[in-house]
Amino acid sequence: MISLALAICLASFYGGTCIISGLIQFPKKLIPTWVALSMVITGLVLIITAILVATNSIFFYVLAICLITLHLLAIYNGLYMHHKLNLFHHTIRVIFSVVIIVLFVI
User: Fold this and answer.
1) Can you give the residue range of the structural domain that contains 98?
2) Whole-prediction pTM value?
């Protein structure tokens, strides 16, 4: 039960930071609007599905899709803004996502 609560907290934190990141990018216009909007929507769906996983396990798959989508958007953002990938940044994202998944599974 503690691992589920921790997983929900971590997923909500991750989703919340993605929402904030997307909202900050709107006025700056450093990335395309559709990417910023996708970050906000996917972050919101991540938070909602993290909470709903406790009620129905089908939401676990939606949560996994959200995490993958956020990674793809982050890769796109890095390539769009810096024309290269920041491997350390993406490694941290992958580790964080794996921890969230593992906490939901155990």
Assistant:
1) 2-105
2) 0.92
